[in-house]
Every structure is written in structure tokens, then in C-alpha cells.
Amino acid sequence: MPQLAQRVGRAKPSAIMVIAEKARQLKAAGRDIISFSIGVPNFLPGDHVYEAAREALKHDSGQYGSNRGAEPLLDAFLRHIEALGFSGYGRMNLSIGIGAKQVLYNLAEAMLDEGDEICFAAPYWTTYHDIADIVGAKANVLHCGPEQNYKLVPAQLEAALQRKPKVFLFNNPSNPTGMVYTREEIAALADVLVKYPDTWIVTDDIYNSMVFDGIGYHNFVFAQPELRERLVFVDSVSKTYGMPGWRVGLIAGPESVAKAVTTLNSNHITSVPEVITAAAVAAFGGPQDVPRAKCEEFAGKRDVVFEALTAIPGVVCPRPQGAFYAFPDISVAFGKSHQGTKISNDVEFCAALLEATGVACVPGSAFGEPRAMRISYTCPTAQLKPGLERIQAFFAQLS
Ligand SMILES: Cc1ncc(COP(=O)(O)O)c(C=O)c1O
Fold it and tell me: Domain named Aminotransferase class I/classII large: which ranges (predicted)?
């Protein structure tokens, strides 16, 4: 019997999908389910995006396209990143992928040999660890608990970089915590990064349009432009434009990296389809009312979620300032019981919560922080308060 490659044994199914599937089954069985589990934006892009796709369909060549991305898309992305604050980038600094996820996988293949070290903060987006495992890299996870607002601090970064990792992977705004680094915090970390020239820096900042409270989006290169030669910025249409199913991600970085990703594309995906490309051009280049309105809406929902969670005795929730997640520390519940069901950890907590109340959240251990759980608050507004009230009632019933 032939054996599968060892890397398949290292690949784990997503813990988020496991909860989502359980919620789906309960719903199919007639239960009233409120899902705070999947990180999908739950809105659609503006009409101009669909119009562009329909128009492209009329003229579709049906052919393979550019491995790097079609020029109109690269140009639209360049204008988009200039508006964010990146300057001096050209087409040769860019490359494309089937969503940020595939881009990140390509970057791992481009930068990491087996046994190389990659460091990133926890709580982390689950896929970071999985990609490291699949390519056989060693993950150095830098724990940033609720005590430090789930944020990496310069001393921690310095200690990690002294080990000369090949890659430092950074995420801002954060999935799963909703934390956003201020200009000063980014500058302080950038001061450390400039001292370690042997490490690639990847900033996965796909929630850059969803920043609240006027903090703004900041990147290490804004503080230390010399980092440009080893920093790669990752973006995507998924969250900003409500287009996760369209699967378009892009990078801006050094030419050597963009070329490597383009070469990998020529072997993995070849190109992004024409119709999808046209939709992405319209998203980046068209009116930005939808992302702006959604950012405002999510900021309002954040207030509701934050208020409800911090009203629960013993629950600690650093205040999210971006994306659409909250990440409360729920460890006050561990060791207690809910109507006879013992809860000793985050996984048992989320299972009991789902079973008893129909509210689906993701255990924090999926993100490297077992004291917490993730709430994704993109559900319809009408479900938000009832869902939070069920969580509050669940806590109140613990004994
Ligand atoms: C931090 C982060 N990076 C990357 C991705 C993947 O995005 P895409 O849909 O572009 O593959 C996600 C999706 O949830 C994410 O939260």
C-alpha cells in the first residue's frame, strides 16, 4: 500500500470548520443557532463589482493569464496601497494568489526550507501554524496574553529575532483578537526589526480597512523605510470588499520575492481567471463606500459586543479596535459546571455553550490561547444582542 507524504500527516483540519460544521448539523436538526464562529464578512461588494464581472464575461478570452496578475489589477492594487501609505512600489514588486491564504503558503514555500524557523505572536490565525507545519518549518510562537492586550512588545520580538529566524510573520489588525497596533507601537517594533537583517518580515494585514477609533493603519515600512527590502505586505479582497469567495490575494514586497511567488504561481495556479480579475480591479479601483460603511457598522457592533462581554463577572476582554473579532478570556469558567456538564477548558466551554444555547464560538486553543474564545460578530445585527445575552445567561448559570 503506498503511503501519503509525511506533510499530510502534519496538516490538520481547521478547528474553526469543526465548530462551524457542528453548528450546521444542529441547525439542520431544527435548533435555533447563532453563529459567531466563522470569520466571513457577511456582506457583498457594491454593484460596480458585479457589473465589471458581467462585462468581463462578455469579452472573456478563456485563456491562461499572467502568473503575476493582469496589469490592470496590478495597477489598481498599486493605487490601493499608495492610498494606504506605501510609496515607490511598481508592478515588479507585486504578485498575486488565490486569496491571502494561498499567497501566504507561497511565501512560506519561497522563504522557508525544512527546519527553518518562523516566529509569530499568539493568538495567531490558525493557518500560520498549519502552513509552517506543512512546509516543515519550526514555529516559534511568542505568547501575548490578555495581560498585554494580546500585543507583541519590543522585548519579546528582540528575544525572538536573536535566534535569527528566517521569517517573522505579523498580523495587524489581528484575527482572532481584533487588536490594532498604534503608530507608536509599530514604530517601536520597527526599531527592533531594523537590527536583524537576516529575517524576512511578512505583514498579513488583510483587515487594514477595518480599523476603528481613528487609530489608522500602520506598517513597519512607514516607520523604517529601509525595511522595504525584506518586508512583504499581504492583502486580499476577501474582508475589505466582502469577497472571500472570489479568492484574490496580492503581495507588495521586494522584487526577488514577487518574482519567486510568480514562479511558484506558474507551477501551482498559473493565473487568476479574467472575470475574477475584472471584479478585483473594480473593487480596488471603484468607489470605496461599501468598505467605509462596513467599517462603521463593525465599530458599532464592537461596542455592543465589548459592553456585553465586559459586563460578565470575571471575563476579561481587551478592547478590539479592528477587524470583526473579540477574544474574551473566559478562563473564569474553567473548573465550573453548566447544568451538570463539567467545563475544564476552552473546548469544553464552547461545546457546552453551543449545546445549551445554540451559540457557536471558536475555542481559543485553535489560535494558541486556550484561556479564550473567539467571537466573530459579522452576523446580522438582529442576532447580535440575543447571542450575547445567551452567553451572559450561560455564565450566570455556571456553578
Ligand atoms: C489574518 C488572516 N489572513 C489571511 C486570511 C485568508 O484570507 P483569504 O480569504 O484572502 O485567503 C484570513 C482569513 O480569515 C485571515 O483572517
Answer: 32-391
Domain positions in the chain: 6-44+290-396, 48-285
Compute the distance from residue 233 Cα to the ligand 1 centre, in Å.
Answer: 13
CATH T-level topology, domain 6-44+290-396: Aspartate Aminotransferase, domain 1 (3.90.1150)
Q: Is the minimum distance from the CB of 206 to ligand 1 under 6 angstroms? A: yes
DSSP secondary structure string, 113-174?
A: -TT-EEEEEES--HHHHHHHHHHTPEEEEEE--GGGTT---HHHHHHHHTT--SEEEEESS-
Looking at the whole model, is its pTM more than 0.85? yes
- With a 6 A CB cut-off, is 202 part of the ligand 1 pocket? no
219-251 pLDDT, tens digit each:
999 999 999 999 999 999 999 999 999 999 999
In angstroms, what is the span from residue 14 Cα to ligand 1's centroid? 13
Evaluate: CB of 241 within 6 angstroms of ligand 1.
Answer: no
CATH code that applies to domain 48-285: 3.40.640.10
CA of 246 to the centre of ligand 1 (A): 12
